[in-house]
């Protein structure tokens, strides 16, 4: 079995050449170039799809997500939600607390990265999660420069 002529063989020790070459397998499948074909009689209206997703399948039990165990988990879930919704990376959490309905978290997000870093714009988002860690609402409450002091 000959390898690619431009790539060196790696041994188990990681050096080039040798006889005990290590093989790495990749599980990436090629992207299909075929265009999917749709039949008009099999399309389901979006409203009906939403309705189906909301109902459990016949004979199956609905399992709710496990409740949030503590402030660390609530903060982590809030950071993931904000990053997914805004597309901006979470920098940290400035406050976490329990509320009547679940959790209240304030997440600091890098909105506009700049050079030098002290001129980057950050924002604080107020995030409310229910007891299961599902997002109830969020809103931006403050936008500021990284180097700016609090008033």
Automatic annotation (TrEMBL):
A Pfam family recorded for this sequence: GvpO
InterPro entries assigned: Gas-vesicle_GvpO (IPR008634)
Protein name: Gas vesicle protein
Low complexity biased stretches: 12-21
Disordered, as annotated region: 1-74
